[in-house]
Write a structure and sequence with these properties.
Layout (H helix, E strand, L loop, with lengths): L5 E2 L14 E4 L4 E5 L6 E2 L4 H6 L4 E6 L1 H6 L1 H10 L2 E4 L5 H4 L9 H12 L3 E9 L7 H4 L5 H15 L6 E6 L16 H6 L2 H13 L4 E6 L7 H19 L6 E4 L2 E3 L3 H4 L2 H12 L4 E10 L7 H19 L5 E6 L8 H5 L21 H12 L4
Parallel strand pairs: 5-6, 5-13, 6-7, 7-8, 8-9, 9-10, 10-12, 11-12, 12-13
Antiparallel strand pairs: 1-4, 2-3
Helix pairs in contact: 7-9, 12-13, 13-15
The structure holds ligand G3I.
């Protein structure tokens, strides 16, 4: 008989610091009384195995150079992950050195790595206002924008035809405060082509590679505060419009860059659950595409900080994974050794950030337990 092995507590020293449970309030009620004991999980199976048991795919993002230069990291990546999404290699700024050339070198090596190590690969991203190459402004006009967009998508999607799990076809197209109709972001693509750029992107992708799941990927959908709720409404409207136009979007990617500091104030489990249900009722799948938990303003003390971060993971994922339309979960990085948050949201005390499942020494931490536990509790798809 298999020996039961509980992870989480044995690895913790200084347990006394958790003598009192942390009671967390959200806008409606007490949502959790968290202590270390809430994060015990059974066995040592990696996240990809726990996910696969529920027909969910677990994985993470990384840059190629991390896998190449850091074999210990690469080993953990392959152990924990069933899917990889390139953090930059498929963005325009990497792929498009000039208006007439493509550089697939790094992304091709990543694909080869995935194929050799039994990892699926996602594509991120075909259209994004934030990865516009320097040559773009002097080259792309209202006259040639459609052709350039179609050429880009056709060439890139064709290059990886039949080889990717999914494409983030359009990324972050909504920004309600911009004041445009339907909440669309003022982006170069919107200015050049109007809202139809989204239809062009989804239709072209579907024509070139019908086999890769076509995802609309967005951030800022996580909370129950007014800006999140407005963005959810705009997102649902956009998805409905695309579907009504015959533009073949198949899934919503919810980035889920959450801040532990904000969870007690703004996370509303009931409204998040309803949003997921609303998306699913459009016939769409859902992917949690970029989950991480920023530790801005959390205590410096590591056990206390990790407990708060793990609690945020648990609260978020218990709601997200209860929705059967959620078919994949990716964290935006695997180890605190490599995370965009170090550069974009460093702590004011200068301490290293701890937003991911493994610590900077590649050890599983409480956040790992929180993800593992949420996967174990999730209903099977
Ligand atoms: O390549 C240069 C390198 O040569 C140089 O030494 C280094 C110095 O800082 O910069 C490198 O480029 C950086 C690149 O990441 C690779 O590390 C860019 O400055 C930096 O802006 C870029 O940031 C990425 C960002 O997207 C913009 O593309 C982050 O790593 C990446 O995590 C982030 O990912 C986004 C998703 O695509 C969309 N959702 C939000 C998410 C987080 O911002």
């Amino acid at each position: 008989m298999r020996r039961r092995n509980f992870l989480g507590l044995s690895a913790m020293s200084g347990v006394g610091i958790f003598g009192g449970a942390h009671y967390l309030l959200n806008s409606c009620n007490v949502v959790k009384a968290a202590s270390q004991a809430d994060f015990m999980v059974q066995g040592t199976d990696p996240l990809k195995v726990r996910a696969a048991a529920k027909n969910i795919i677990y994985g993470a993002t990384t840059h190629l150079e991390k896998l190449q230069k850091d074999p210990a990291f690469a080993q953990q990546f392959v152990k924990e992950c069933g899917i990889l999404v390139p953090e930059g290699e498929l963005k325009w700024r990497s792929l498009r050195p000039s208006s007439t050339t493509f550089n697939f070198q790094s992304a091709d090596v990543l694909l080869q790595y995935c194929q050799q190590n039994n990892l699926l690969m996602r594509g991120h991203t075909l259209v994004w206002h934030s990865s516009i190459p320097d040559w773009f402004a002097g080259t792309v006009t209202t006259q040639n924008a459609e052709q350039i967009l179609v050429d880009h998508i056709t060439t890139v999607v064709n290059h990886y035809k039949g080889k990717l799990h999914s494409w983030d076809v359009v990324n972050e197209a909504i920004n309600v405060p911009d004041g445009n109709p339907d909440g669309l972001r003022t982006s170069p693509w919107l200015s050049l082509l109007g809202p139809r750029y989204l239809d062009i992107a989804f239709k072209t992708t579907a024509t070139v590679d019908p086999s890769a799941l076509r995802v609309y990927n967005e951030f800022g959908l996580d909370y129950g505060n007014s800006s999140s709720v407005q963005k959810r409404t705009a997102t649902l409207k956009l998805l409905e419009r695309l579907l009504n136009n015959g533009s073949p979007v198949q899934a919503l990617g919810i980035q889920a860059h959450i801040w532990s500091r904000d969870m007690p104030k703004y996370f509303n489990p009931a409204s998040f659950k309803q949003f997921l249900k609303d998306v699913a009722s459009l016939g769409l799948k859902i992917l949690i595409t970029e989950l991480d938990v920023a530790d801005v303003d959390l205590p410096l003390d590591i056990p206390s900080r990790d407990l708060l971060i793990a609690t945020s993971y648990q609260q978020y994922l218990d709601v997200a994974l209860a929705e059967p339309a959620v078919i994949a979960l990716l964290t935006w990085g695997l180890s605190d050794r490599y995370t965009w948050i170090s550069d974009y949201y460093p702590r004011s005390d200068g301490a290293p950030v701890r937003p991911l499942p493994l610590d900077a020494q590649l050890q599983r931490k409480l956040a790992w337990n929180a993800i593992a536990g949420a996967l174990d509790r999730a209903p099977k798809r």
